[in-house]
Amino acid sequence: MYPVITISREFGSGGHSIGMAVAEKLGIPFLDSKIVEEVAKESGFAKDYVKEQDEMANYPELFITANIFSTNYLDTPQEQIQQIQSDYIVEQAKKGPCVIAGRCADYVLENAD
C-alpha cells in the first residue's frame, strides 16, 4: 500500500482546503467529495442520500463495526454505504499515494492490507 495522508476534521475546520492544498503541493490526488460520488455509483443510492448518511455516520466505531462483518450481513443502507466507502478508500490507497479528507480514513486504513 502506498503512503496516504488522512485528514480528520470537523465541520468548518478547513480540513477540505488544507487537504486540497497538501495534495496540490505534493502532486497527488485529493479524495473528498469524489468518494461520495463513487459510493453513490457503486451502491445505487442517490448522491444526496450517500452524503447525508456519511455526515450522520462519520464515527470510527461505526466503520470498525461495518468492517468486521461481511457485506452479506449488512442490514441497513448506512452499513452498506460504510462498507462500500471503506472498500473504496482501501482501493485508492493501493493505487497510489493520495490525500483523503474525513470519512474515518485513518481508521479504515489502520489495519488494511
Describe this structure in words.
- It is a single chain.
- The protein has 113 residues and is mainly alpha-helical.
- It has helices at residues 15-26, 33-43, 47-56, 60-68, 77-95, 105-110; strands spanning 4-7, 30-31, 98-101.
- The relative contact order is 0.25.
Which helices and strands appear, and what pairs or packs with what?
Layout: E1 4-7, H1 15-26, E2 30-31, H2 33-43, H3 47-56, H4 60-68, H5 77-95, E3 98-101, H6 105-110
Parallel strand pairs: 1-3, 2-3
Report the oligomer: single chain
Shape: globular
Unreliable sequence segments: none
Total beta-strand segments: 3
Features:
mainly alpha; about 110 residues; about 60% helix; 6 helices; single chain
Short description:
The protein has 113 residues and is mostly helical.
